[in-house]
Amino acid sequence: MTTGRLDPIRLCAVAAACGCGLVLAPWPSAAGAVGAVLVLVAARSRADRDARGPARLGALVALAAALFGISALRSAALLRAASARYAATLGELPAPALCAFRARVASSPVVLERGAGPRPSGADDGARARAPS
After folding, report:
1. Contact 27/18 with Cβ under 8 angstroms?
2. What's the pLDDT tens digit per position in 57-67?
3. What does the alpha-carbon distance between residue 62 and residue 59 come to, in Å, rounded to a whole number?
């Protein structure tokens, strides 16, 4: 990239990339668009020296704005289509099966060891503690 010269292909690529991100990340996209505008403003002063410069710059601005808008619309449409496909997929899938039952705890899952602390009344040495019935 040469210094002091505006690269129209890169500028249009930045505009298209900023448009794609506009739907999900508006602030970074806006920052990229502002950066592209600042580059264009800096290029305008150089373009004024050339007789055909302002016309080329105007066409470049129009092209970059069109790419920005088209990419934003395209990404919004793709996200809407993906949401619709997701909803349709959820409608086709069966609901998850849920199991429910009642249970009664017969004994504690903790084994009491000899001399390891207080034992519940009626517990045998090394046996599981039993819940009162």
Report:
1. no
2. 778 888 888 99
3. 5
